[in-house]
Amino acid sequence: MTIAVHGTVAEGFEGVREEFASVLAGERDDPGAQLVVYRHGRRVVDLWGGDGIDGDSLTSLYSIAKGAAHLVVALLVQDGVLDLDRAVAAYWPEFGTHGKDRLTLGELLEHRAGLVGDAEQPFTVEELADDRITAARLAGRRPLWEPGTAWGYHAFVIGALTGEVVRRVTGRSVQELFEERIRAPYGLDYHLGLPAAAEARWVDVQPLVPTAEEAALLKERAAAPDSIRGIAFNAHAPAPLDLVAFGNHPRVKALGPASSGGVGNARGVARMFAAAVSTVDGRPPLLTPATAADFAALRTPGGPDLVTGMDDHFARGFEHTPAIFPFLAPGTFGHSGATGSLGFADPANGIAYGYTRRRFGFPSGVGAALENGRLAQSVLRAAAAL
């Protein structure tokens, strides 16, 4: 497939453009992709290609929202407003039922709560779109494992749970604080709640078009509805959750649930992670080196995820990205999104990376689409040669 590549790269990053073109050419179906990179707070790569998409196009980036939400949490910890070692129930008394009273905020951020979904009453899309509804429902539920003893991806609910702690302490939602402290000051084209003025730039998420072999593999891998994974992905609902429809749902776009409902583009994602660790347009980094290192460190050693079966790879609220792509520097942190998108900050090399896909790729088994490995390596090669 021939897909024209548009955009610009700084001198020395021409190889990144070539790698991006190669990735698009190797796709069976048009992915509608964007790639943006910052180095030491300056944008050095701004590329896009695919039908119906340009550098300004906005789409659902799913779990990259966890990165945005937990930048807010990291800032509040850095400010001394939140304490990672304090019990969640000390902030949110209703949470302290069924053995959850001893779970700390740090453990919650590490996906250790055992509250991956509601086994008793599946969520509707409209409920999952509203973090307050999600949090209120889960507060009184029995966890699916003893809190703190294991971990499993709280795919659709972690941002609602950590966000309720934020709301109880500050009186503000994660979405409000993200807007006030991060998005607006740094001019990010990434939103937890799409403003009406930006609706004209929205492009729908597109579904995977599987081959017959891929379709058979997906059927074989499907979670049993009553399994931990099935509950986490709402497969036990009368109408199991459709990820494409979820990302395109008007209420999800409007409310921006902090686990899975962010809307943006690669420019916004890369600039967000650049702002986390670098000076951007004269503004200092959001996080101190100590805070960034603490939130980036691998926190789930010693076994597979009880939801996905993947090897451990969680930091505090973020993914420990080197566990997915081992060539990345140890302090790198970020988050992937369901279509295969990825954003991360690499403080050691001053790199911030944003890659987005409009079309779902075949699940890689590591969250981020595998082409991110090729693209990120091309970025690091270019940066090392300067």
Tell me what the structure shows.
Helix content is 35%, strand content 11%. β8 (342-346) and β9 (351-357) form a beta hairpin. The strands form 2 sheets. Strands 1-3-2-9-8-7 form a 6-stranded antiparallel β-sheet, with helices on both faces. Strands 4-6-5 form a 3-stranded antiparallel β-sheet. It has 15 helices and 9 strands. The relative contact order is 0.18. It is α+β, with helices and mostly antiparallel strands and 386 residues long. It has helices at residues 14-25, 64-78, 88-91, 105-109, 125-128, 131-139, 158-170, 174-186, 212-221, 228-232, 243-248, 250-255, 266-277, 289-296, 371-385; strands at 6-9, 33-39, 42-49, 59-60, 190-191, 263-264, 333-336, 342-346, 351-357.
Q: Brief overview, please?
A:
This protein has 386 residues and is of the alpha+beta class. Helix content is 35%, strand content 11%.
Largest sheet: 6 strands, antiparallel
Please tell me what the overall shape is: globular
Distance between the termini: 32 Å
The radius of gyration is 19 Å
Please trace the helix and strand order, writing H or E for each element. Answer: EHEEEHHHHHHHEHHHHEHHEEEH
In percent terms, what proportion of residues is strand?
A: 5-15%
Q: What integer is the average pLDDT? A: 95
Work out the helix count.
15
Given as residue ranges, the uncertain stretches (5+ residues, pLDDT < 50) are none
* Total count of strands: 9
Output the structural class.
Answer: alpha+beta
**Could you give the order of strands across the largest sheet?**
1-3-2-9-8-7
The percent range for helix content is 25-40%
